Amino acid sequence: MDAMQAVQAGLEGVVVAETRLSEVDGERGRLVIAGDDVESLAGTSSFEEVCARLWAPYAKEALPVSLQAALGEARVRAFGLLEGLGDALEAGDAMDALRAAAAHVPAHPDGERDTFLMLTGALAVFTGAWARLQRGLKPVRPDPALSHAADLLRMVSGEPQPERAAGLEAYLVTVSDHGLNASTFTARVIASTGSDAVSAVVGAIGALKGPLHGGAPGPVLDMLDSIGRPEQAVSWLEAELRAGRRIMGMGHRIYRVRDPRAAVLERAIERLEQGGLRTARLALARAVERAAEDLLRQRYPDRPLRANVEFYTAVLLDAVGLDRTLFSAAFACGRVAGWLGHVAEQRATGRLIRPASRYVGPMPG
User: Fold this and answer.
1) Phi and psi dihedrals of 175, rounded to 5?
2) Whether residues 207 and 262 fall in one domain
3) 252 catalytic, yes or no?
């Protein structure tokens, strides 16, 4: 390696793959998933349809005619794995449980299509089962006739909640893919070694668990609870900034403007309210977002720090009835669609991912 070659810390700006799956335009605040803006996808497409669009470009086998039915069947098969998970779902953290449980999913010997279906179904089943077991309740058997989003919500709550399922559907679609983020890159690195899709997803879950990636929606809700009322937003935020603490849900590594997913999820909450599911947190969140944006602009005029996806994720997932301990696991239930699309793409178009490093330690002698 050339000793003068520049080190790109965090690989920022380094292009390591071409993809047909999603495009993130941080300057313009635009996210394109499988050829459509996320704003149009989240309002018109089901999670199953988005899975099909993300998997189809590199699928070695034809996808099922009805992906909803195929995912329903996969959830039922995944439910049959619960008895063989040992103590995986006894972990106190949902992501620890999900990572351990996902490792038990068998890689289908006859083709990756069935492994993709099984992994996607299993993450929903394991999330629902963990949520129930944490409350001392028995896991709920999947209903294969329901949509993936509706059944995930049912497996968590124990009863159908069709009026809330649309909100969760919008969330799963919105977070299904997002360029070469940390967990997706992890999945692609593992896939590039020739390893199986189960290993790639287990590694991706580990990356998503990190608070700098997918582990922050819960703390956003904690922040809103601490603020309490819109009129207290400015004083509370000022105190946090004086103490040197970051404002949760504000700022993004890529976006220089407001995260387009924040707008999509904000509208999804509005639709829930129009349907009769009122949440006091929407007005509070909007007030906090405005106050935080103004304060951060004054404090860091050269650093655009605006609402990211986690800001309204917290409000939406709370509104549909998910406990904050499930937020990162719900993220994984949506992002698995993109992880698997990238696994297939890496296999079809990529090579072993093996970046270099520069040694700066002592030399012998």
Assistant:
1) -100, 10
2) no
3) yes
Residues 181-196 pLDDT 10s: 999 999 999 999 999 9
- List pLDDT tens digits, range 85-136: 999 999 999 999 999 999 999 987 666 899 999 999 999 999 999 999 999 9
Domain that residue 279 falls in: 217-319
On whether both 47 and 113 belong to a single domain, the answer is yes
| Residue that the structure tokens 């935080």 belong to | 292
Q: What does the alpha-carbon distance between residue 310 and residue 261 come to, in Å, rounded to a whole number?
A: 9
Rounded CA-CA distance 323/137 in Å is: 15
If asked whether residues 234 and 286 sit together in one domain, one would say: yes
Distances (CA, A) of 117 to 32, 100, 112, 120, 179: 23, 18, 9, 5, 22
CA distance 171 to 185: 21
What CATH code is carried by the domain that includes residue 249?
Answer: 1.10.230.10
- Which tokens hold the place of 142? 């999947």
273 is catalytic: no
Q: Which of 252, 266, 289, 345 is catalytic?
A: 252
Does the reported pTM lie above 0.85?
yes
Do 291 and 151 share a domain, yes or no? no
Same domain, 144 and 172: yes
The tokens for 211 are 């608070």
> Which residue numbers in the chain have pLDDT < 70?
1-5, 109-111, 215-216
22-25 and 30-33: which strand pairing? antiparallel
> Nearest 5°: phi and psi at 180?
-95, 60
Residues 312 and 331 in one domain: no
- Among 48, 266, 289, 310, the one annotated catalytic: 310
22 located within any domain: no
**Closest among 112, 271, 139 to 199, alpha carbons compared:** 112
Distance, in Å, from the CA atom of 312 to the CA atom of 217, rounded to the nearest integer, reads 8
Same domain, 312 and 332: no
> What CATH number has the domain bearing residue 43?
1.10.580.10
